[in-house]
Amino acid sequence: MKRVALLGATGSIGRQTVEIVERNPELELCAVAASSSRDELLQIARAHSVPHVSLAGDPPLEELIAASDPDVVLNAVVGFAGVRATLAALEAGIDLALANKESLVAAGPLALAAQGRGGGRLLPVDSEHSAAMQCLEGRPLDTVDALVLTASGGPFRGRTRPELADVTVDDALAHPTWSMGPKITTDSATLMNKGLELIEAHYLFSLPYERLRTVVHPSSVVHAFVQYRDGASIAHLGYPDMRVPISYALTFPSRAPTPCESLDFSRAFTLDFFPPDEEAFPCLALARVAGQAGGGAPCVLNAANEIAVAAFLDGALPFLGISETVERTLARVDAPEVRDLDELLELDSEAREAALASTRELVA
Ligand code: NDP
Ligand code: MG
């Protein structure tokens, strides 16, 4: 029996994780956490006789992890709020199934150092990275020319920048292929999601940014592919369904059965790929530049993006203001390397202040 601590149990990834656990007799929930969805959290806890529960930080996620003694922590909290849990699980040597990409983007070097000391595994839940891990498995990195992450292109694929000026929150949340929480759905609409994923891939797979690419692939059937130096590319395919990478991470390396359909080749389908439009969607290039700058720049990028997306979802910032906020904040905030959690928290709050100031300027 594998004991799972599920953080963010009431969200999109959290609910699908509960379903995977329910269908797999080898998995059980030993802890669950959420922020404000009290009734749903307590219902999950009751239905699964979960002994350890955290609501709105009570107890803090690090304490929940320590008290519940899990075999694997699935971090499906959204945003920087997931950082402490990521670091705590890795420091303690507990396997971490990571959906919370913001924690790796903001705290990549600290997370890798904690993993080095703790010795647990870092198993990506993000579909592209789960796919990449499988395409890379057991092959030396010097044979890899490029890792290519696919992007659906989001609801605004094909639009020019001027055509994005008046899009609404509802437009941005109407994702064509994935059903996800509002923050990542907005990130998919700006292509910041793919930018965050480039940084996530850099830390997960130790590949330099020059060997990390993105390509727009509207049907989201190919999740990632690796191009090898001999001209071969190895791809990972499947219908867009997060239960597959969730189950893969929780049952690694045994690849347990899931209720998910395999590709149906009796129906015709085509696979299309397009280069991303970085002029209409500047967040992708901003993330690449921040990733390449290194130090605290990815933390600043992430903080600015969280502030801007929250403002957009509140109706207080236009869609194009998201990338403008991120760009202004990166220009404003010095981002030296952070050496510990305290320095990270300080840089994150400084970046949030600067981002808030930028959003106010943009709507003034
Ligand atoms: P949702 O918004 O649907 O869910 C977020 C979850 O986190 C909720 O359970 C929420 O609780 C909980 N939460 C938020 N803040 C805290 C906190 N401070 N302490 C404890 N719990 C908290 O997000 P998603 O499930 O869509 O995404 C989760 C993460 O996974 C994100 O980082 C996202 O980028 C990543 N991801 C998601 C994918 C998807 O398909 N959804 C795909 C790949 C990655 P409450 O309900 O009480 O607010
Ligand atoms: Mg993804």
Spatial ordering of strands, largest sheet: 3-2-1-4-5-6
Question: Major sheet: size, sense and barrel closure?
Answer: 6 strands, parallel
Distance between the termini: 57 Å
- Report the CATH architecture of the largest domain: Orthogonal Bundle
Number of helices: 14
Share in helix: 40-55%
Strand-residue proportion:
5-15%
Elements, N to C (H/E): EHEHEHEHEHEHEHHHEEEHHHHH
Q: How would you describe the shape?
A: globular
Domain count = 2
Radius of gyration over all CA atoms, rounded:
20 Å
Structural class: alpha/beta
CATH class bucket of the largest domain: Mainly Alpha
Total strands: 10
The CATH H-level superfamily of the largest domain is RNA polymerase sigma factor, region 2, helix turn helix motif
Question: What ligands are attached or bound here?
Answer: NADPH dihydro-nicotinamide-adenine-dinucleotide phosphate, magnesium ion
Poorly predicted regions are none
Structure notes:
- This protein has 364 residues and is α/β, with parallel strands linked by helices.
- 46% of the residues lie in helices and 15% in strands.
- The chain contains 14 helices and 10 strands.
- The model has no long low-confidence stretch (mean pLDDT 97).
- The structure holds NADPH dihydro-nicotinamide-adenine-dinucleotide phosphate and magnesium ion (MG).
- The site of NADPH dihydro-nicotinamide-adenine-dinucleotide phosphate has 29 residues, from helix 1, strand 2, helix 5 and helix 8.
- Residues 126-128, 197 line the site of magnesium ion (MG).
